[in-house]
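Narrative progress, year one. The postdoctoral researcher (J.K.) led the effort to move from monomer predictions toward full complexes, under supervision of the PI. The following entry was the first complex the group processed end to end, covering 371 residues in total.
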Amino acid sequence: MVGTGETGDTGDAWEPHLLDEDEFLREVQSFEFWFEAIEGYLGDRPNGYDPDLVEAELDDAERDQLVTILCNYPVGETAALEASSGLVRLAATNPSQIFMATQVADEARHVEVFRRRLEHLGVSDLDTTIASRANPELLEFKRTLLGFVDDGQWDLAVFAQNVLLETMEDTVFRFHQTTADPVTAQILEGVIADERRHLGFGENDLGRRLAGDPQRRAQLTEVRARLDPLVLRCFEATYRDLGLRPDEFPELGRSYLDAVERLGLGG
Amino acid sequence: MNDDLDTANSVEFETDSDEAPRRRFELEETGFREVPKRWRKFYRLWDGPGDTLAPNEVICPVCKVVIRSHRELRPGDRVYCMPCMSRLVVARGPDGGLIADVLY
């Protein structure tokens, strides 16, 4: 147990769990909440990491593997940047619209910090290197996601972006954080903190919308089944880049399967 | 507010006459910085397999952050996960420990 001291105090202590639903949503989907939250973990980390952090010694092979892994991240983040900017216009409520605007800013920062990390690792022609090393499965996923946005399909786009893509990224980044050099690990830590908001927003927004709409749930279940092979290929390609063995793959997909189950999209 | 939430809310800070009084806990910040300062002591990072939950704590199934309360939690309590914006209700898990289910 961490920092939890039992007390004899029997008086009511105010806490966030006492907010009513509307107050809670107004608070967490506000610009102010986002701003104070990111200031807490990014305020002293320009480019996503503490400038005093000492860079680890990487040999050529390690550096090359890291560059290959990192080349995938701006692709996924750019997909989310472009999709979430389109979703600002599709949002049905003002709080959702404001939240999506904060996600645009988050995704833009992710693209920037990953590209700068690649530059610091000595990659000179970023766009060419990213294009040559990024997994084609991710590019296919990006096309699918942006297609949903272009068609004005909020539910499908939020599912593909905030549930599928964010869960994928969250899972991969968490694993990579445990094996990465200190600078990359700290960059990933900040991105993971952002991803919590994104995937939480997606699951909760969809969960509320699907609760009274079995037809929409059936449609999403169908889309999920169609996207699953692509998602699996994305996971596998990234796992290979991370140097994982095939028998380690299923556990890393657990968060995605759990989210799908909670949403009743298991099919 | 839907019926589920009303049910979850109805037990807030109440004690059934046949239940033991709830223990109360003093909360301190643990270094979790992903929410505005005034909310930080209500959340902490899960430290993995060696970590344990206190009676006033439950894990958010969506983002895996530990949610904390001033009072001992019991099945039926509503809690919020601010880091991922989830509304949850505390339940008894298969192993007898407390878990949280998402309320959409």
